[in-house]
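Re: [ENG-882] Designed sequences occasionally contain unexpected residues at chain ends

Forwarding the minimal case from QA. Structure tokens:
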């Protein structure tokens, strides 16, 4: 168990955070990302709606079946596309979702659209970083969005502890926790950053430190590394992708991750069952050996076993 009192935030009707075993891991699938086959024009935001909706429904079905909460990470490269994507997701899903723009202009636009459509309570901003321009900070404040992922990326010190200093502040640099408070963010999730497969070791160690010292929900995106590694492999190693991708996510869960951004939404059919099983194992041990109480009856331990 982690020493610090664990902060649990409710986003929409989903709770995230806590001690291992209290709540299932929040899983987040990327949609409308660059290279997604269903997107026909990234600048205009044109896409084939039928297959996209099929993948959304599949993820929702698996989340309901297993008890694992699931969000979408809505990605866009251009403001006009972001507006179309947000409107589509809001019309076809009741779940909260992330807005994730490739440029400051797109991220600002996503916040403006969120405010315009009255979706503040359903949206998580992805992500607040030390590089955020003033225009982006103002847009966060004015949007009324209360939930955000903070990017624990320290370009000077890549160690696990170095990532934590980004939150607290170092030298004359204001920490992201203080910045988040100033712009009105109340529900904080911390992404500890994965660069490549070996660096997952540092990312998961940073998760432990953040939860142990600060108590904030923390997680990462192992898929950022596993997909990149897959592209570099020969046929023999590529054949093992499903297994080593699941393994990377399992390592993060066993290290206390509260959320995982698992890459393309299509992977929901493999990742949700994998992580549901892991959640059940973690909760079983925590309940019987540590006396941890589950905070939801809709838990994989109850739903699938």
């Amino acid at each position: 168990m982690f020493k610090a009192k664990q902060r649990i935030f409710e986003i929409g009707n989903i709770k995230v955070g806590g001690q291992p075993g209290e709540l299932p891991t929040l899983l987040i699938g990327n949609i409308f990302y660059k290279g997604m086959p269903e997107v026909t024009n990234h600048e205009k935001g044109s896409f084939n709606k039928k297959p996209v909706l099929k993948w959304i429904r599949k993820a929702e079905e698996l989340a309901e079946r297993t008890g694992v909460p699931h969000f979408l990470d809505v990605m866009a490269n251009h403001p006009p596309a972001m507006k179309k994507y947000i409107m589509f997701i809001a019309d076809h899903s009741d779940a909260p979702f992330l807005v994730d723009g490739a440029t400051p202009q797109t991220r600002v636009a996503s916040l403006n659209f969120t405010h315009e459509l009255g979706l503040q309570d359903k949206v998580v901003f992805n992500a607040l970083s030390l590089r955020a321009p003033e225009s982006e900070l103002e847009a966060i404040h004015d949007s009324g969005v209360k939930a955000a992922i903070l990017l624990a990326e320290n370009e000077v010190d890549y160690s696990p502890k170095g990532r934590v200093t980004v939150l607290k502040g170092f030298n004359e640099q204001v920490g992201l926790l203080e910045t988040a408070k100033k712009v009105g963010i109340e529900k904080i999730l911390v992404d500890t950053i994965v660069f490549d497969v070996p660096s997952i070791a540092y990312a998961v160690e940073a998760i432990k430190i953040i939860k142990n010292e600060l108590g904030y929900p923390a997680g990462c995106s192992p898929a950022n590394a596993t997909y990149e590694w897959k592209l570099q492999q020969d046929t023999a190693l590529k054949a093992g992708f499903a297994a080593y991708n699941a393994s990377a996510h399992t390592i993060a869960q066993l290290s206390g991750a509260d959320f995982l951004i698992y890459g393309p939404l299509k992977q929901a059919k493999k990742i949700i069952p994998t992580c549901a099983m892991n959640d059940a194992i973690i909760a079983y041990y925590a309940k019987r050996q540590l006396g941890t109480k589950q905070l939801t009856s809709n838990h994989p331990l109850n739903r699938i076993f």
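QA comment: On inspection the terminal residues look reasonable. The chain has a mean pLDDT of 96. Proposing we downgrade this to a documentation issue.
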